[in-house]
Write a structure and sequence with these properties.
This protein is of the alpha/beta class. The protein has 2 domains: 149 residues, Response regulator (Rossmann fold), CATH 3.40.50; 143 residues, 3-Layer(aba) Sandwich (Rossmann fold), CATH 3.40.50. Helix content is 47%, strand content 19%. It contains 12 helices and 14 strands. The strands form 3 sheets. The chain has a 6-stranded parallel sheet with strand order 4-3-5-6-7-13, with helices on both faces. The longest helix has 32 residues.
Length: 361
């Protein structure tokens, strides 16, 4: 769910989340994507039909100075590329997809987009459907880094290259190129900031057990804290799937279980927003340090107001552009990197002016 900050204070938005009045409709977005894709396919068919009629109208060519030349050239081959992400309710993936879509469209090609709504079985079915439609390349951010294996095997059987976004998979041999943020480094940066704030704390971790990047972030965070030698205690690791509503419910339960929680480390900002809504409802937000990973406009606004402590900022704009570049390097037989790691940056209230609160980096 995207939580817009313009026109209202952040705390009012958190209250709306907590009350359930601000939500996200997966079915509506799925219909929107399906309708948009259908319109693109229909436009493509009409354009192609028009060009073919023009060819017939002028016959097959014209005679100029004793030579027979083409009057109309047939349209060049239009490539069809498939893309599927864990969920497009997360603005991070939505932004990546928008960047890829812009480049694919500018090249006159077609991008089929699928949103499985964090359902791996559905994602596998959608990948198979796109393969049957004849996609030449697949871009995927898996719901489950192990569960996606059967779909990737089918892509290999059909000779379709795969670009993996923001994740790793159980069998890297099934992937042509992997593009990720420095996820371990993201957790490390959050931990270093916490170390600079306090030498002892009771901490809860909000994770996404199906995401490899989630484990990388938490590894970087926890290992850095351990190496510090300070008195940090992990109260509980709670899986919330990186979802706002699940994170809010998980945080409500954690607040009932533990009378004192000093720090929340969330693996993404959807989870952080859900946790903050629960903390705000309980009146505990001002006394709790909240860390996350993403660097969304919503999180930067919260940091600016002193409600969120810090985030390790990814760059979905850069990831999307890189993915689009690699798409054509692969399809055109050019050299390409098989593993691309995009740097992350820490954003705190002290340096928020340098990044601003409008848009992604």
């Amino acid at each position: 769910m995207v939580v817009k900050m313009k026109g209202r204070r952040c705390t009012e938005k958190l209250a709306l989340v907590a009350s359930g009045k601000l939500g996200y409709n997966k079915a509506t977005q799925a219909k929107d994507f399906s309708r948009k894709e259908g319109m693109q396919m229909e436009l493509f068919r009409r354009t192609l039909a028009g060009l073919l009629m023009l060819v017939v109208a002028v016959s097959v060519g014209i005679w100029v100075q004793g030579k027979f030349i083409d009057a109309v050239r047939l349209p060049t081959h239009t490539r069809m590329i498939g893309a599927t992400y864990t969920t497009l309710s997360d603005p991070f993936y939505e932004t990546i997809n928008d960047e890829i879509q812009m480049q694919i469209k500018s090249n006159g090609d077609l991008l089929l987009v699928r949103d499985p709504g964090q359902d791996q079985e559905r994602q596998n079915q959608e990948i198979e459907d796109m393969l049957n439609k004849g996609i030449e390349l697949l871009i995927v951010n898996p719901v489950d880094y192990v569960g996606v294996t059967p779909a990737l095997e089918k892509a290999r059987e059909k000779g379709v290259p795969v670009i993996l976004i923001d994740s790793k998979v159980d069998d890297p041999e099934l992937v042509t190129c992997t593009i990720t943020s420095n996820n371990y480094g993201a957790g490390l940066l959050d931990a270093r900031h916490l170390i600079s704030q306090t030498k002892n704390a009771r901490i809860v971790l909000l994770s996404n057990s199906d995401s490899f990047s989630s484990w990388d972030r938490l590894s970087g965070f926890c290992q850095t804290l351990t190496k510090s030698g300070n008195d940090y205690r992990i109260l509980e690791l709670r899986d919330c799937g990186g979802e706002l509503n699940r994170a809010m419910r998980a945080m409500e339960q954690l607040l009932e279980t533990f009378p004192r929680i000093d720090v929340v480390m969330a693996v993404n900002e959807q989870a952080a927003l859900g946790a903050m809504a629960a903390l705000e409802e309980k009146g505990a937000l001002s006394s709790t340090l909240v860390y996350s990973v993403d660097g969304s406009p919503e999180a930067k606004a919260l940091i600016s107001e002193g409600l969120m402590t810090a985030t390790s900022a990814q760059s979905p704009l850069r990831i999307g552009r890189m993915a689009a570049e690699v798409v054509y390097e692969i399809l055109e037989g050019k050299p390409y990197l098989t593993n691309i790691v995009v740097p992350v940056n820490q954003i705190t209230q002290e340096d928020i002016l340098r990044y601003g609160t409008e848009g992604w980096q």
